[in-house]
Please model this.
Amino acid sequence: MKYAFDFLDVDLRPAKPRSAGLTIVRDRMRGLGEQREFLETYGAFVDFVKISNFAPRIYPEAFLLKKIDMYQQFDVTPFFGGILFENAVAQGKADQLAAYLAAINAPAIELSNNIINLTAADLARHISAYSQHGILVFAEWGAKYPNEPLDPGVATTEMAIWRDAGARHIILERSEIDLLLSPEIVEQGVGVLAGLQRNLGPDTLIFEAETQPQILSLLQGIGRDVNLGPNIDFELIKWLEPSRLGISREMGHRTIENHAGAAGVRSRLPGSSET
Model:
């Protein structure tokens, strides 16, 4: 591929498939035309897409098959959200859902226990069963309404059980991140999140950050190869990828100082170190 302005240096990220620095967006059953337009422009920056919640149940199967196929044409892996799985569990049809996903060549799903009363051990058994169907499994860890910051030891232990049961990726619930990134403990909180990533591995843990302030805290505190998603809206990708590369206003336009040197810039992002 020939890039625009390719005579100017920029440290691009590795091409897909990536094992770290994953970006996951949310698809609220967007139309196929809008989906194609997004993928033609931004597909290279996106690794996975979450088709949200229980909404797919009310659309024609033919439409859903086209949606799945289009994502895969652009090397983006689609997966269904945990609420679809929880509805199947509530109806006693978790095995039927796994078989259906395999039958329609749906590559992945998120398994969660956000609403339904399902123990961590029970979820681990479902993770193992779905993995044996050849389905890539995301598992979500954390409380929707936590009262206090997570215990890193407990979180690591429970996440590792799901990983060892077959989950490819563990998503850390947004509310848990909110508590750790609250202004009064943000530095300590970023340290806790970075520690979780080290414990689980950079290719396993995904942070469910969806706002620009959350994402910036993680990019600045952990680095450009932090895994982000799955509730990032399509519209945010045009900002996120430049921010990963340090070429957005919020990240300080680092490429200029990298080449001009500290003495060659008249303004830099507060808190950033001198080159």
Q: What stands out?
A: The mean pLDDT is 94. The two ends are 31 Å apart (CA to CA).
